[in-house]
Amino acid sequence: MYGRVRSLFLRPESSEDVFPMTPFIIEKTETPTDPVKRTELLANPAFGRVFTDHMALISYSADKGWHDAKITPRRPLSIDPASTVLHYGQEIFEGMKAYREKDGHVATFRPEANASRFAASARRMGMAELPEDLFVQAVDELVRVDQDWVPSGEGQSLYLRPFMISNEVFLGVKPATEYLFIVIACPVGAYFSSGCVSVWVSEHYTRAAIGGTGEAKCGGNYAGSLIAQAEAKDKGCDQVLFLDARERRFVEEMGGMNVMFVRKDGKIVTPPLGGTILRGITRNSLIQLAADQGIEVVEEPVDIDELFSGAASGKYTEAFACGTAAVLSPIGKFMRPTGEAVFGDGKTPGPVSQQLKKALTDVQGGRTNDVHGWIHRIS
Ligand SMILES: *Cc1c(COP(=O)(O)O)cnc(C)c1O
């Protein structure tokens, strides 16, 4: 057992949060991907379809705590049909990336932030909390074993997907007593092709309500957003924007990205975190990087009607979505049944979006001084 078994619903006490390095059993694959084949795969990886050779696994049970930490060949899981996750959806995940730095080393970006958000998601979903050090260590161990899979091309990285499922064989409705934490990895290129994305404003479906699970990174949030995303596609848009559930009036976020706006007065505006918006690490990093450049970021509600009239009047000059997978995606226009809000010519990324994207990707790629200590070197 690693560390002390905590009661499921208590917040961790920090003094007990210090765990020694956990021994991982490393079982390497006997059939690694041929290096020539890997080079081919890395040249142009499609998002989320190409995976590395290994995965990290850690088990939890109420009596043993976290145990059996290992790296194994990537392979299918064997799950009982009565496993709780298949019925009640206790599932949470993270999304982060390992980058090939300019100097050739491999590093992740703010992994402690992912670890602590993962623990917060676990608390909200009534799941066992993985100690944050163990989360970071599991990611490190996997990246080290699969480090040849970290691509070095522009905009490329190794996308990491830590996730946890409840895995008790029981059909009763209650928090499970067994969990499985897993990390898988896939090399990725740019998420969206360059240029701007178009966004459909969902006036019917909402993503999260106060007191709900909007702040937890759980699979269920995504399941609930897919119909709205499909509607957006149907309307010819790339992405969907959700409004607040109470009034359908204030901008919240996209299905999997936070959103920001640039105003004519030079300030950036982004909706405040209030329990219904995911606490994006990209969002947080961009707020800091903007401040570093003397750009003020105000976190205040953005009224959707005011956004549409402000785009027309020139009060709002740029809009962009941000998240780990897509980094920073300039938004060319928003669409709703009554009209469009277009930024610039609707096709060309604005100067502030480009400047911030460069600032962020330069830190992540080790091309600029890491003044905030965000880079976590692995190899
Ligand atoms: C993951 C996610 C984000 C972005 O978070 P990052 O930490 O920046 O990757 C934003 N919104 C939702 C709903 C998400 O699931």
UniProtKB/TrEMBL annotation:
Domain of life, source organism: Bacteria
Residues where N6-(pyridoxal phosphate)lysine is found: K217
CDD domains hit by this protein: BCAT_beta_family
GO biological processes: isoleucine biosynthetic process; L-leucine biosynthetic process; L-valine biosynthetic process
Keywords: Amino-acid biosynthesis, Aminotransferase, Branched-chain amino acid biosynthesis, Pyridoxal phosphate, Transferase
EC number(s) stated in the UniProt entry for this protein: 2.6.1.42
InterPro entries: Aminotrans_IV, Aminotransferase-like, B_amino_transII, BCAT-like_C, BCAT-like_N, BCAT_family
Cofactor: pyridoxal 5'-phosphate
SUPFAM superfamilies noted in UniProt: D-aminoacid aminotransferase-like PLP-dependent enzymes (SSF56752)
Pathway field: Amino-acid biosynthesis; L-leucine biosynthesis; L-leucine from 3-methyl-2-oxobutanoate: step 4/4; Amino-acid biosynthesis; L-isoleucine biosynthesis; L-isoleucine from 2-oxobutanoate: step 4/4; Amino-acid biosynthesis; L-valine biosynthesis; L-valine from pyruvate: step 4/4
Substrates-to-products reaction catalysed: L-isoleucine + 2-oxoglutarate = (S)-3-methyl-2-oxopentanoate + L-glutamate; L-valine + 2-oxoglutarate = 3-methyl-2-oxobutanoate + L-glutamate; L-leucine + 2-oxoglutarate = 4-methyl-2-oxopentanoate + L-glutamate
A GO MF label: L-leucine-2-oxoglutarate transaminase activity
Pfam families (UniProt xref): Aminotran_4
Keyword Cytoplasm tagged: no
Coiled coil: none
Similarity-based family: Belongs to the class-IV pyridoxal-phosphate-dependent aminotransferase family.
Entry function: Acts on leucine, isoleucine and valine.
Record protein name field: Probable branched-chain-amino-acid aminotransferase
Protein's organism: Gluconobacter oxydans (strain 621H)
